[in-house]
Write a structure and sequence with these properties.
Layout: E1 2-6, E2 9-13, H1 15-22, E3 35-37, E4 39-40, H2 52-55, E5 59-64, E6 70-77, E7 81-89, E8 98-104, E9 117-123, E10 128-134, E11 137-141, E12 146-152, E13 156-164, E14 177-185, E15 193-196, E16 209-212, E17 229-231, E18 238-239, E19 244-246, E20 248-250, E21 254-261, E22 267-269, E23 273-275, E24 281-291, E25 296-298, E26 302-306, H3 316-346, E27 350-351, E28 358-359
Parallel strand pairs: 3-16, 4-6, 18-26
Antiparallel strand pairs: 1-2, 5-6, 6-7, 7-13, 8-9, 8-14, 9-10, 10-11, 12-13, 14-15, 14-16, 17-20, 19-23, 21-22, 21-24, 24-25, 24-26, 27-28
Length: 373
């Protein structure tokens, strides 16, 4: 007898009932073409929610479930972990519903279970269970080398697995094929066991499908695309300060960022920064960034200028000199006007040549001595 534990629920399933109810008795090899390719893709967030943007780069297979609708199973890797996602339509909620991913790690395609086979189950409520092979049957063991989360709604439920390469003995850069079987259990439906491949039996690895990374060898293709780098704070204009903020964006994770100011040596930065103490005049700047695989991207070169010096004020000594000159000139003018006026006044009198007496200019003879003026 095989004991399958999911959380607190104990599913007592005899080998005979599994063979007779869930599957045919006659051994049938997996159909040719029952292969799913684990393609390289982005790393999904394992939260139990199948987001189309996260899983659009994955390979898929479908499993016909209750009511003839299709469950979609997603498969991909990121050169470190294998990711499997289930999107299961199901309007009859039962917290013991589960999805199962079964691996034939050594791909021995045996007619009976082997010790390298592993059963990874997740219930609709997110309870995880792991089973290995003991005495030819599935027995519970400690969950290790993987984790998963599930989410449930009234019309469907979803599950996401993160399985380490170590768990399934995969090495990035090395070709390897695994045996695989996907199982969905609907506990509200009699005989509600749905499998991929459609002829697979949980006790016969030879009937399971295959999972491979194809020509990728379980690693992502070499990344040759440089990151996109943009300067968003500096513009081609004049700044009236010596300290200018440098704000930038990079399209992917980086291992290094730096800038070159005025064609000088690169200065390493960790992100947005400020350019301090810029001198007046013209400047240029370009920002570089390396992504995590060593590709270097560069921003457009930005030309800008700094202007902080104000026009020099008119020299005060010149102003003082002008004022002095004007003052002296005014004084001289007043003086000469007074002298001229005095001269005019003096010329109005006539001095007698005989006695020296001053006479009015209207007199032709001296008022004192009568002498002719």
């Amino acid at each position: 007898m095989t004991i399958v534990l999911i959380g607190k629920t104990v599913l007592m399933v005899s080998l005979l009932s599994i063979v007779n109810i869930a599957f045919n008795i006659t051994a049938v090899l997996a159909h040719f073409g029952d292969i799913v390719v684990a393609v390289p893709g982005s790393t999904p967030t394992i939260d139990g929610l199948i987001d189309e943007d996260e899983w659009s780069d994955a390979s898929t297979v479908t499993v016909s479930v209750t009511g003839g609708v299709n469950c979609t199973v997603y498969v991909k890797h990121d050169s470190i972990n294998l990711y499997v996602g289930f999107n299961i339509p199901d309007v009859t909620y039962n917290n013991t519903d589960c999805c199962v991913t079964i691996f034939d790690v050594n791909h021995d395609e045996s007619t009976t279970l082997q010790i390298d086979d592993v059963w990874l189950a997740v219930s609709r409520t997110g309870t995880k269970g792991e089973y290995n092979v003991t005495a030819g049957g599935w027995f519970p063991t400690m969950v290790s080398g993987w984790f998963a989360h599930a989410s449930s709604a009234s019309s469907a439920w979803q599950c996401e697995y993160n399985i380490t390469y170590l768990k399934v003995d995969v090495t990035a850069g090395t070709d390897k094929m695994l045996g695989v079987m996907f199982l969905i259990v609907d506990r509200d439906v009699e005989m509600g066991w749905y499998v991929w491949p459609s002829t697979a039996r949980i006790l016969e690895p030879m009937t399971w499908g295959d999972i491979t990374s194809d020509e990728y060898d379980w690693q992502a293709p070499a990344d040759t695309t440089p990151p996109t780098v943009s300067i968003v704070s500096l513009e081609n204009k004049t700044y009236f300060t010596t300290d200018v903020p440098l704000t930038l964006t990079v399209s992917e994770f980086t291992s290094w960022i730096g800038y070159s100011l005025d064609d000088q040596a690169n200065v390493t930065i960790t992100g947005n920064t400020t350019l301090y103490g810029l001198f007046d005049g013209s400047h240029s700047i370009i920002v570089y960034a390396n992504d995590t695989t060593g590709n270097t991207g560069a921003s457009q070169i930005i030309f800008f200028s700094i202007s902080t010096q104000q026009a020099e004020p008119f020299p005060m000594w010149i102003v003082a000199a002008i004022l002095i000159i004007l003052g002296v000139g005014a004084s001289l003018l007043v003086y000469f006007l007074r002298v001229k006026k005095t001269t005019i006044k003096v010329q109005k009198w006539r001095r007698c040549p005989r006695c020296g007496t001053l006479n009015l200019p209207t007199h032709d003879f001296c008022d004192k001595c009568g002498a002719s003026l």
